Amino acid sequence: MRAFRWSLAAVAVYGGLLLVSGALFALLTLMGWIDPAGDGAAIYWVVVTPAIVLFGAWLLLVVWCAMDADRRGMNGPLWALVVFMLGFPVGPVVYLVLRHPVPPAPA
Hints:
The chain is mainly alpha-helical. About 75% of the residues lie in helices and about 0% in strands.
């Protein structure tokens, strides 16, 4: 299995989220709901930027739980779904309490 690079995952997640938020801003501007030179644009970015950071961190945490569950011989996709659905901080805490120990490496 190839090594997972967290830096590439973070760039992909945050880059994608920023692209979506920029496209949404452009769409709202074209529809006339936001004036790009007015206060609406500033409020949009003040609200959207922290949401992007928190949602991106949340997605990376779900990916980490899935990968860690696979490494421990558990069902990774199921745990990713459980952690995602239970939300923060309940999902990661439930996973950390119920996870199996790491199996020993073969000799």
